[in-house]
Write a structure and sequence with these properties.
By secondary structure, the chain is mainly α. The protein folds into two domains: about 25-55; about 65-279, MetI-like fold, CATH 1.10.3720. Helix content is about 75%, strand content about 0%. It contains ten helices and two strands. α3 runs parallel beside α6. About 30% of the residues are buried.
C-alpha cells in the first residue's frame, strides 16, 4: 500500500448562511431528554399491557407484575444463560470487527483486490440469515462453532463496507498533505487512515449491536441448547408467555447497556473531535 494508492472522493460541500455549525447543546441536556422520552414510552407500554391483560387470557398478555416476577426469577436462576449469550456476542462482534477492518482496509487501498472482495461481501449481504443458520447446522457439529459462524458472516460485511466507505471518504486535501512528507506505508496507515476510520468503526458497532443481539438469540434458538434463545424457546413450548416477555425485557435492557458502553468508549476515543450541530 502506498500513499498514492488511497482512493478518495471529496465532493463539494455547500455552505449556506443558515447552516453554520455551532457547538452542540450540553451532553447532559440531551441525555436528560432521551431519558424522559424513554421513560414516557415505557410507561405507556406498561399501561397498555395492564389494560390488555384485563381483557385477554394470561397466556396472551400477562400483567406487568407477572412479567416483573418472572424477570426476577430468571435473574436468580438463569444467570448462566445470560452470560453465555453475552460471551458469544462479544467474541463474534470483536472478531467481525477486526476481520471487517482488515477486509475493508484492503478493499480501500488495494485496487486489484477491490472488485473481488466487494463481490464476496455483496453476495454475503444478499444471503438471508436463515439460510446461513441452516447451512451452519449442516456444516458444523459443535453448537458454539455454529453460532460463531452465523454471527460472523452476518456482522462482518457491515464493518468491511463501512471501513471501505470511510477510506473512500478521505478528503483529498488530507491525502495531498500527507503525501507531501513522503511517508512510508505504515505512516500513511497510522497517521491518516486509522484515525479517519475510527468514527466509522464506532458508528458500525452502535448500529449493529441491536441486530447482533437479535441474531444471537435467533441462532441460539436454532442451534443451541443453552443461552437466552434456547430459554425463550423453552418458555414458548411450555406456554409461559410471562417468561417470554421477561426475556424480551432483559434483552432490551442489555441493548441499552451495550449501547451506553459503546457510546462511552466512543467519547473517550474521540474526545479530541469537537461536536457541532447544524442550525
Amino acid at each position: 500500500m502506498t500513499a498514492g494508492s488511497v482512493k478518495t472522493t471529496s465532493p463539494p460541500v455547500p455552505v449556506a448562511s443558515g447552516m453554520i455549525g455551532r457547538p452542540r447543546k450540553p451532553a447532559n441536556t440531551e441525555a436528560r431528554r432521551d431519558l424522559i422520552a424513554t421513560t414516557i414510552v415505557v410507561v405507556v407500554m406498561i399501561v397498555a399491557m395492564q389494560i390488555a391483560s384485563a381483557y385477554v387470557p394470561d397466556y396472551i398478555m400477562p400483567a406487568p407484575l407477572n412479567v416483573l416476577e418472572s424477570t426476577k426469577e430468571l435473574l436468580l436462576n438463569d444467570k448462566t444463560h445470560i452470560f453465555v449469550t453475552l460471551a458469544r456476542l462479544a467474541v463474534a462482534v470483536v472478531f467481525s470487527m477486526f476481520a471487517g477492518i482488515i477486509i475493508g482496509g484492503i478493499m480501500g487501498t488495494v485496487g486489484a483486490l477491490r472488485p473481488i472482495l466487494r463481490a464476496v461481501i455483496i453476495i454475503d449481504t444478499g444471503i438471508p440469515a436463515l439460510s446461513w443458520m441452516l447451512v451452519a447446522v449442516f456444516w458444523f457439529r459443535d453448537a458454539e462453532t455454529r453460532i460463531f459462524f452465523i454471527l460472523t458472516v452476518i456482522l462482518l460485511p457491515f464493518y468491511a463496507l463501512n471501513v471501505y466507505e470511510g477510506i473512500r471518504a478521505l478528503p483529498r486535501d488530507f491525502v495531498d498533505m500527507v503525501e507531501s512528507f513522503r511517508p512510508t506505508r505504515w505512516q500513511v496507515l497510522r497517521y491518516l487512515i486509522i484515525p479517519h476510520i475510527v468514527p466509522y468503526i464506532f458508528l458500525t458497532t452502535r448500529s449493529v449491536i441491536g441486530y447482533a443481539i437479535r441474531m444471537a438469540v435467533f441462532a441460539e434458538l436454532v442451534a443451541s441448547a443453552i443461552g437466552i434463545g434456547s430459554r425463550m424457546s423453552l418458555a414458548q413450548s411450555t406456554f409461559h408467555i410471562d417468561r417470554v416477555f421477561a426475556w424480551t425485557f432483559l434483552l432490551v435492557i442489555l441493548n441499552f447497556a451495550l449501547q451506553a458502553g459503546v457510546g462511552a468508549l466512543e467519547k473517550i476515543a474521540l474526545k479530541w473531535r469537537p461536536e457541532v450541530e447544524v442550525r
